[in-house]
Records
---
Amino acid sequence: MSPKQFFQQAQAEHVIPNTSELQSSFQFGVEADELAKLILTGKKTATTSQYVQGEDDLPGKKAYDVILDSQDQPVCIIQNDQVSVVNYLDVDEQHAFAEGEGDRTLASCRKAHDEFFTEECKSEGTTFDPATAKVALEKFHLVYPK
């Protein structure tokens, strides 16, 4: 099933208003299956992504996204509750806990993001600098399936 069909199924079941639009569909990080499971169990209700001003569009507040597994198959639909841009080093314990990964501490969250962002930047021919990096923080909730 395509992400669009999955979204339309949620609309047909009256979980999502028919007037709503799908913002995007994507896999979370390098462990797409594990992270999708964390969303389904309610442990993952936030995410952090690199933000480069002028290059990135921020996700929309109240927007819907289809989360995909490692095979690009729809797993669930989330809705953004809050979106903000902060300095990487200003990400706090509360956000780290909401990410739902590892032991849910800020130290664990930073270690994972340091590694991920370093590799991401390397593949783009840039360097990740935690002291100057900006990140987009998203808080969301599971909409479908319930």
---
Amino acid sequence: MKEAMHPYESLSMSSVGIVVGIYLVAMHAWMLAKPEQSQGILKKLPRNHNAGIYTMAIGLIWFWLLVAPDLRGPFSWLGKLSMDLGEFNFLKRYLQIAVPLVCFGLITQVREFLFVRGLGVIALMVAAPILDAAFLKEPGSRLLLSIFAYALLTKGMFWIGMPYTFRDAVAWATKTQGRWKGLAAGGLAYGILVLAFSFTAWRGF
């Protein structure tokens, strides 16, 4: 019997590219249009505990859904994202209990850089469907998505393990207006390129 396809595997490169492109264009256009506002928000976010509650909760709930139990009835939708871990499937039952406890413990006990740590978890979660969408696809331009996904993975691991790197990166990026505008313009151009391929070369993939 053929194993059911995981929702990540059904994502098209075009649709994922459109979402990534819109995010990149919107974020970097905001950075260019309102540099003072965007810089001020980014400087405050690392120690914003209230914002950290949301990022950590979103990230760990998403992770929990990847190991969620196979339920029946009205709550069957909870297991839609559950992944086959192969020989490590036995760990699911422990993770189903451990993840909510860890989430509660982090939100109530961790005061330093909770936002950044939560953002790191979200970055790791977001990278997976992007990589799945581009995996073994024909167009060489798929690397635009792969590079973005691996950048998320790298930043996510640093933000979880060394959250102060987010603060340092923001301080470096905002040191001069020229540097800020250059980074924002580069991100905007990357987003426009992703969108252009999403509507052309990636159609049907």
